[in-house]
Amino acid sequence: MTLIQTELALYDSPLTGKVKGERSIMEFPFFHLSKGRRMQPLVFTDSRVTIEVRPSSIGVATIYDKEILLYIASLMVEKMNRGERPEQDFVFTGHDFLRVVGANRSARSYERLTKALERLQGTQIKTNIEAGGEGEDGFFSWVSEARVQYSKARTGERRLKAIKVRLCDWLYRAILKDLRILTYDHRYFTLGPIERRLYEVARSHCGNQASFVIGLDKLRRRVGCEDTLAKFASTLRKVEETDSLPEYSLAIVRHPASPTMRAMREEGLAPAAPTRGLQGVLVNFRPKGSTSTPQKSYWDIEAA
Q1: Which of 51-65, 113-127, 208-222 shows the lowest per-residue confidence on average (mean pLDDT)?
Q2: By its UniProt entry, which Pfam families does this protein fall under (predicted)?
């Protein structure tokens, strides 16, 4: 075996299959929806889930930092599909990660990658969502260890060689034991932050369902968007008009006589009298090409 072959054998990359993600971090808002620094905690609560995310010294991990977790989860699932039991430690090249997420391989991209690792390691998460049949009362970080190995050119320029990451116990158990794994469409990486979350909500809920219906305000909280309800509705209208989500379409349901609203009333999931204002607006996600009836939909309209 040559020296190059020996070095390559130490890597978990390249990723040869599709990008995979764990359903809990797809369904709920664990990440900041901007590249800007956020130093305030993120808090999400509903009738069954609580999430608190505290910032690192350089801010809360972002939806773009999450790409690293998706990449690691994909490497892990690939090993499992080969019949291997993956360890929590992963070694991969920055080149392959950037290839998978569609980023250019510039010095700036490598710098952003190291900052993303720092935020993932520094951000603290507390949630009542169990993983692998176990719960945790304290805080954890997305990665418990992150190291970047580099070599130096004669000019003194650093050249990234490998990235070593130790995945947190919570996410490792969720992937290994719960097996709630879903495939991401590769176009996900071309989306903006809110569109990414809309896609993830649709992907995690539609499944084999004909469609998924959720109240506008509940969707805003599930996405993790802090815009006003009116501004969020305006964003959704643009997504609806351009049909910009991969795999899924969304429709904003406003009219009290619409088939979706009538179906909800028949099932006792909507008030008999129309609700005024944006609080009564629903959002209906469907797989593209679906022509199924609303009665076969999955409803999640608590506090709709």
Answers
A1: 208-222
A2: RPA
Q: For the CA atoms of 86, 87, 89, 94, what is the dihedral angle to 10 degrees?
A: -10
Residue 58 domain boundaries: 3-184
Residue 290 has a pLDDT of 66
259 and 155 share a domain? no
Judged by DSSP in three states, 263 sits in helix
Query: φ, ψ for residue 14 (rounded to 5)?
Result: -85, 160
Domain closes at, from 133, 155, 184: 184
The number of distinct structural domains making up the chain is 2
pTM above 0.85, yes or no: yes
Asked whether residue 14 falls in the same domain as residue 118, the answer is: yes
- Contacts within 8 Å (CB) and 24+ apart, 41-50: 42/224, 44/221, 44/224, 46/218, 46/221, 46/302, 47/302, 49/127, 49/128, 49/129, 50/126, 50/127, 50/128
pLDDT digits (tens, 9 = 90+) for 22-47: 999 999 999 999 999 999 999 999 98
User: Mapping DSSP to helix (H, G, I), strand (E, B) and coil, where does residue 254 land?
Assistant: coil
Render pLDDT for 100-122 as a digit per residue (tens, 0 to 9): 999 987 778 888 999 999 999 99
Give residue 195's pLDDT: 98
Are residue 13 and residue 104 in the same domain, yes or no? Answer: yes
In a shared domain, residues 55 and 157: yes
- 163 and 108, same structural domain? yes
Same structural domain for residues 203 and 169?
Answer: no
- Regarding whether 168 and 291 lie in a shared domain, the answer is no
Query: What pLDDT score does 74 carry?
Result: 98
Cβ-based neighbours of 60, under 8 Å, separated by 6 or more: 31, 32, 38, 39, 41, 42, 53, 54, 119, 123
Q: Which of the residue ranges 141-155, 240-254, 277-291 would you say has the lowest mean pLDDT?
A: 277-291
List b or e across 269-288, with b for residues whose CB sees 16 or more CB atoms inside 10 angstroms.
bbeeeeeeebebbbbbbbbe
pLDDT the model gives residue 266:
58
